[in-house]
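fold-stage: in
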Amino acid sequence: MALDDRTEQLAVKAAQGDRAALDDLLRTIEPDVLRHCSRFLPCRQDAEEACQDALLQVARNIHRFEGRSRFSTWLHVVVANSARSTYRSLKRRSLEQAGELPQQRPDPRRTSVIAGSRVDILDAMEDLEARKPDLIQALVLRDVSQLEYAEIAEQLKLPLGTVKSRIHEARKQVRQTLGESYT
């Protein structure tokens, strides 16, 4: 999500308490946030739900944006966390309903190779987060948000070498979880 200078300035004003700037900021970033959530979630409705949650988190937590890094970098973390949280919530709801109702939505693993891959990868990322939570954030920022290593190091307040090491290890762990078909 590369945001222009105007959007970055709106974020600074919103963080300082300017409500009009916050409203303008949310309208401006919504299409990018939705597009980014769609990278995580195969179903458009799920991506829209994650987008709304992310925008709500931005509105509630903009005061925490300190301006030490670009707003777009801060936003990547918020959006990635929201999309992953939405995925976990949907997965939990699906498991709860499995015993109560017949399957109403087709399994995306059987309907689309691309969608199935995303779901499998999200499962692998969720597994990684449970086992090695220190690795997941760097992986998401690099491979999903496509940030540069230096930006990730700045955002996570870690040395560049540590970031590269965590990403390498996270990728290795995810590949092991996904198995032979993804190597």
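fold-stage: in (second)
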Amino acid sequence: MTSTFPDISISTDRLVLRPFDATDVPALTEMMNDELITAWTSAPHPFTTADARDWALRTAPAERLSGRGIVFAVTEFLTHRLVGTVRLHHTDWRTLSTEVAYVTAPWARGEGYACESVLAVARWLFRDQKFERLELRTAADNTASQQVAQKIGSISEGVLRNAWIARSRTEDGGWTDIRSDLIVWSLLPEDLDEVRAPQTGSTGYAAAFHSWR
């Protein structure tokens, strides 16, 4: 059995999900410095051009080559503008299960791009790669990501108490770490039969990105 995902691109009506390349570095740098993404991910802050280059050109390709998962740059079909990223990680090739995380650029929120991109990856994962389980973890106060999980048909399975470290603004404008519960969601192949991808209204800025590096 294969232990790595293929090096591919996935297309929807509005989006192209593809490997990152050097042209994505400026947009990735800008996106990852958004306050909501800083709050709900473990990405470095500030997120520098060097961080973006390292992520796009070293960390993301290594995720696939190592068998741990795969990382997609999500872009608009018409403009080629970077919408966000979708990442499969913590992949278990014996049980055919993996975890999905994502971020969405501030300008792209409210268009349903998060749902559309995650659903596209889920369909590819289940139908082409024959996986049996996709997991999503959202911080307890991250209602936007919880809405995405619900809209794509995920089932809430429970809470991991005190399992995540988010970040919150301080009075002086800095950041401080705060503990958070994580809600665990799952999506199975049969769950997709009832799903129709919503095209608008989903903010979905960030699901928990464990171990960003």
